[in-house]
Specification:
Blueprint: H1 4-10, H2 15-27, E1 30-35, H3 41-54, E2 59-62, E3 74-76, H4 79-86, E4 99-103, H5 111-122, E5 126-133, H6 140-147, E6 152-155, H7 161-172, H8 178-188, H9 192-205, E7 208-211, E8 214-217, H10 226-234, H11 241-253, E9 255-257, H12 258-263, H13 267-275, E10 279-284, E11 287-292, H14 295-304, H15 307-323, H16 329-341, H17 348-360, H18 364-375, H19 384-387, H20 402-413, H21 454-469, H22 473-484, H23 488-494, H24 497-514, H25 518-526, H26 533-550, H27 554-564, H28 573-588, H29 592-602, H30 611-628, H31 631-642, H32 650-666, H33 670-681, H34 693-706, H35 710-725, H36 731-747, H37 751-764, H38 769-796, H39 802-816, H40 819-832, H41 835-851, H42 855-872, H43 896-906, H44 911-918, H45 922-936, H46 944-953
Parallel strand pairs: 1-5, 1-6, 2-3, 2-4, 4-5
Antiparallel strand pairs: 7-8, 9-11, 10-11
Length: about 950
Amino acid sequence: MPTENEQLWAVTARQAELRAIESALTDRGGILLTGTTGVGKTRLLAAALRRVAAEGRTVVAVGGAGGPETGCAENYCSLTECLDRLESVRRHSDPARRTVVGFDDAHLVEESAAHRLYRLAASGRVAVAATAPRDAALPAGVDKLWVERLVERLEVRPFPRDLVSAILRRRVGGPVDSGTLERLWATTRGNALILHELVEYALADGSLRRVDGHWHWDGLPARPPERLADIVRLRLRDLAPEEQELVNVLALVGQVEYGLAERLGLARAAETLDGRGLVQIEYGGRRVGIRLTEPLTGAVVADRMSGLTAQRLRLQLADAIEATGARRADDVVRMATLRMAAGRVPEPAVLLAAARTAAHRRDYPLTEHLCRPLLGTPTADAPATALLPAGAPPAPPAADGPAADRDTTAATATAAPAGTLPVSAAGAAPAADRTDSAWFPADGCPEPGRALHHDVARASLLLGRALAGTGRHQEAEDVFARVFADRAADLLTALPADEVVAAVRDRADNVAWGLGRGTDAAAVVDGLPDGLGPDGTGLRHGFHAVLALLADRPDDAARAGRTVLPGEPPDSPVVQHLLPPAALALAELGQPDRALALVDRHTHDLAAWPDDARLRCLVAVARCAFAQGDLARVTATLDAIGRSDGPDDDLRRLQHALLRSRLLRLLGRPGEAVTLLRGASALPVRPDWLATPAWTLAQLAGALAEAGRPTEALQTLVEAQAARRTSPAHPQADDAVLLEHAVVLAHTGDRSGAACRALEAAQRAAARPASALAALHLAARVGDAPRAAVRAARLADGAGSDLMRLRADHVTALARSDGEALEEVSARFRTLGAVPLAAEAAAQAARAYRKDGRRRASRLARAAGTRLLTEADCPLPPWADPQEHRQPARTAPLTSREREVAALAAGGLSNRDIAARLVVSVRTVENHLYRVYEKLGITARSDLGGALQGLARHPAGTVVRAA
């Protein structure tokens, strides 16, 4: 019999495909499954044949298709032998009564057998269930089957991201942390065979393990498992020498431009590998990149590659990059890392330029790898991102702005003559190429009492930034402290003012966010040496404005903007530092119109700003536009972030995903938001004043709840709450987590709990009217409008935000149960572009009219709401659905804590694990579960998942069961 795991991977995850196969075998002449290697065609065919045989149909198999337990009447060695036996089968006009012939690898069938099969299928004697590789040349008889529509052709695709998540949770029997889900997706790309083998291997060797109640996997081991490697190599059989050479190159460096492939004589190999689906082509501006389709392939090939082959290819590729002119800063990075990996050490100027570019794109492991040789400290093997293996994120294109130009200039100004790149053999630079050891002490930091050489200063500060970026915050502070101790004058002599200011900001950020010492961070900024000009002034004002936001004093941040910015020219360094926090403070105070006007007045050439400053400003603009309800400007700002000339780094990806998902949720597309937020939650970005890991996870929980996945939402919410406990205080983010908690509770049926959380969030956000009103709006929508109405009206009074005024009017209309006012609110939400909220207000208007006995008005409002839902292609939230209010309340509702306990238990956690996650006793968990079972009328832990789904549909607390 098939094992439970085989059923899981082949059947549970492919219900839609199985239904399509059954329909084709019942209504037509059969099915032809196509797809790439490893997507699961054979397992799917076996599952389909088992189902058909279990229904009583005659099934015959060829070559053991479906396995020994398929229930086949006969199993033949060849299709010819099978067809010989089937020549006498009676013709049936009803396709559901025909004998089913199942076989794999239809592309290998002989032409004569294929024609015989076609004749039998065309005459109504047999139905066909077969598989074939995608784009394989099929025998003419098989082609005629699908061309003439005698059989359906179904492409079996890799599992989508969300399905990988569902499969994994079911396989391990518990919640899986977001980072693990993203790493598994990035490694397997949904390939069923690779996913199956990798998960089973990781479970067997313990690398996929439960940590604090969630299943966690750190990633592939240094050497891929033998069986998994063998499976990957199956796709690489019969490669021509040029194809194997290109695969080897891609395994080492991840991506190469098509122009480099041409220079290496591998352009034709790229075309043939693309035709076979082994590589994918990526277009970015004028560059065309080539990358292995499956990330795991690169790790397997690189692991088995000869060291001499790897060295030869790295040096050839470095020479090819140099021969093309190495015009971009990123080219300098690649040349340096390739030659270092091949045992050659470039001259210090090139290493420093490469390290600066790596830091600019926030590749901190690579930055450290490049800085260590400059400082004379030991360096580990090159990090994965240094050589860009196929499993790593793609190397972003180098920036074209001033920073990129400066990096390239630094590399070439002191390097060898144009067209050459001096290197030394065996990892040692010649004496003439090495900087004096006085500048590069053995411990990696300048010695006290010595003058500070500019290269040492840059390398040390870059190392500090890299250590902070990789989470080694105390090490980073030690490096920064040694550089800055008694050396302010030396720093100003050795480095330009903007570099000193950037280093101080890096140190202050590390102290504030890495070490959680905001007061010390302020002291770092206040200790800036004199003579730094507008850069130093801007950093002081901007950092103190950020600290004011984090201390929940938006008035102080806004006041700094009002006081300082009017005297500054547009786009000045002071504007770049101070404008984003000042604008966000104004938006939080209910004045997003003034915030956007401030931005427009002081940003004349945003494209010329440094990348980090431009990103912060664009994020602030998008959030102010959200607060104003200007979705058109939100969309335009998102486009600007997406096409930024800056490095495609994790921070930019995170902010773009957070803003985009917020817009998608407002437009009624939470499923798309879930996909974005899953990726965002796995990005290795340290918390800062614009985002925290807990905030990201909470938004994912809210999107999951809105997408109708309550159990996952509650589990993710617990993960977010755990992350919040380990993060520095951030009032806005913490209140946003609480508000998402209310969203999750509302969508899982706990309306009173949701209203309580929303009102609590409003109380905590007393200093931030915009956030407070958003919380009151949610509380009113889920059922507590009277308590929210008075305060909502007061907060909106004098606000410069269209959205705030609209929310307050919505709250007032709900409190008064005013149908006309609710219809007006619906129309205003529609004008705003928030169609789901417009539909919700229309449904509430229909309910208000019905309550007043105005049936005709109720029908018209309900019809208007239906049209809006059709336009948005989304359902009403459960609290606004009129069907929800007709469900009888048969038992007491679950409390918020009972829902959390039930969700974690449904996810497979033991009582002890749940107690640890929620910081309660095991006895408390047992008591909660006892009450949950009693209220829901269930007796087994396995019933909890379905019961929670029922609660999301029927908020009274009872799962309505079929009779």
